[in-house]
Design the sequence.
């Protein structure tokens, strides 16, 4: 499918830079879709190989196309810039965790049955989010700190982890 191209101003929502995709453009990209739409993205012709991301529904037929830091850095753009957007539906997108479960996290879950039960009950997108986060951790100290936090909230403790409030293991 040919990419949809349009010009838009980069705006900010909270701390997240985005461009708004009209309902008509969203229908051209993937007709009838109200859920997040996986797309291939280029901003001002960059990068050569498009980024994989999702357009997020705004609730009124329009979609937010969030522009993460690497996309803005590569295209040398910032909030307030008028940019050329190129998006196409990503037919190769596959839902579910994209990062394997680190062995150190799997071992910790085996030692905590309640946490493992709550992990198994999490929705796939939450698992994906956690596994992506854990994959970025490099130092043993960061891994230990985050495993402790993850096991605590998955075991049912009321706390914050990964910028969200957890209670009863979810």
Sequence:
């Amino acid at each position: 499918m040919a990419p949809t191209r349009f010009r838009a101003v980069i705006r900010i929502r909270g701390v997240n830079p985005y461009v708004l995709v009209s309902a008509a453009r969203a229908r051209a990209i993937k007709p009838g879709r109200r859920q997040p739409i996986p797309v291939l993205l280029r901003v001002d012709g960059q990068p050569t190989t498009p980024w994989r991301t999702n357009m997020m529904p705004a609730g009124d037929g329009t979609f937010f196309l969030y522009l993460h830091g690497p996309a803005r850095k590569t295209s040398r753009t910032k909030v307030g810039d008028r940019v050329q957007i190129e998006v196409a539906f990503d037919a190769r997108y596959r839902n579910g965790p994209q990062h394997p479960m680190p062995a150190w996290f799997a071992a910790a879950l085996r030692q905590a049955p309640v946490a493992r039960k709550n992990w198994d009950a999490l929705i796939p997108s939450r698992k994906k989010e956690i596994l992506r986060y854990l994959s970025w951790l490099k130092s043993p100290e960061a891994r230990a700190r985050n495993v402790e936090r993850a096991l605590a909230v998955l075991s049912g403790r009321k706390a914050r982890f990964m910028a969200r409030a957890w209670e009863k293991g979810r």
Summary: The mean pLDDT is 91.
